[in-house]
Amino acid sequence: MLDRLPPRERQIVDLLYERGAMVVGDICSALPDPLSGSAVRAMLKRLEDKGFVARHESERGYVFSPTLPEDKASNNALGHIVRTFFNGSAASAASALLGMSQRLEEKELDELEALIARAREGRRA
Q1: CA-CA to 50 of 20 to 30 Å: which in 87, 100, 111, 119?
Q2: SS3 at position 57
Q3: What's the N-to-C CA distance of the chain in angstroms?
Q4: Where are the alpha helices (DSSP H) in the chain?
Q5: Spatial CB neighbours of 57, under 8 Å, sequence gap ≥ 6
Q6: Is residue 53 within 8 Å of residue 13, measured between CB atoms?
Q7: Which long-range CB contacts under 8 A does 108-115 form with residues at least 24 apart?
Q8: pTM to 2 decimals?
Q9: Cα 78 off chain centre by
Q10: C-alpha dihedral over 65, 71, 74, 75, to 10 degrees?
Q11: CA–CA distance, 41 with 39 (Å, rounded to integer)
Q12: CB-based burial of residue 94 (10 Å sphere; 0-12 exposed, 13-18 middle, 19+ buried)?
């Protein structure tokens, strides 16, 4: 879903997930490559029409926020990555992550072990 957005629209949605609801001026200021307010408003309108963004009135103008919960958006994006780069294999994706184990902290490795244990328990139930 999000992976099909044009890069600039995706950048705006990512900002909204990262920083929470924002007004146009704040979005313009937060973008790494500046865009005019009218360009950002046009993109937000397209994102709203596509169902990715909702707007609500406030004393500062319209406040924009993502419509999809972040965990659902993350799962969709991760699913796309697994399908695209790992031929749909979650095990291959996990193996690639573990290949980066020198960069993972002990706590992160412990979390991965706990997730694997829970997945095993879930299969037995």
Answers
A1: 87
A2: strand
A3: 32
A4: 7-19, 24-30, 37-50, 70-85, 90-98, 106-124
A5: 63
A6: yes
A7: none
A8: 0.62
A9: 9
A10: -140
A11: 5
A12: middle
Contact 9, 53 (CB under 8 A): no
Do residues 33 and 68 make contact, with C-beta atoms less than 8 angstroms apart? Answer: no
| Residue entry with tokens 């193996």 | 95
Q: Which pLDDT score is estimated for 40?
A: 96
Three-state DSSP class for 61? strand
- Could you give the CA distance from residue 104 to residue 112 in angstroms, rounded to a whole number? 10
- pLDDT tens digits, residue range 48-60? 999 999 999 989 8
Half-sphere exposure of 102 (CA within 13 A, CB side): 1
Which residues 6+ apart lie within 8 Å of 22 measured at CB?
Answer: 15, 16, 30, 63, 64, 65
Q: Write down the residue that tokens 């307010």 correspond to.
A: 37
pLDDT in tens, 2-29: 678 899 998 999 899 889 999 999 999 9
Tokens of 75: 């799962």
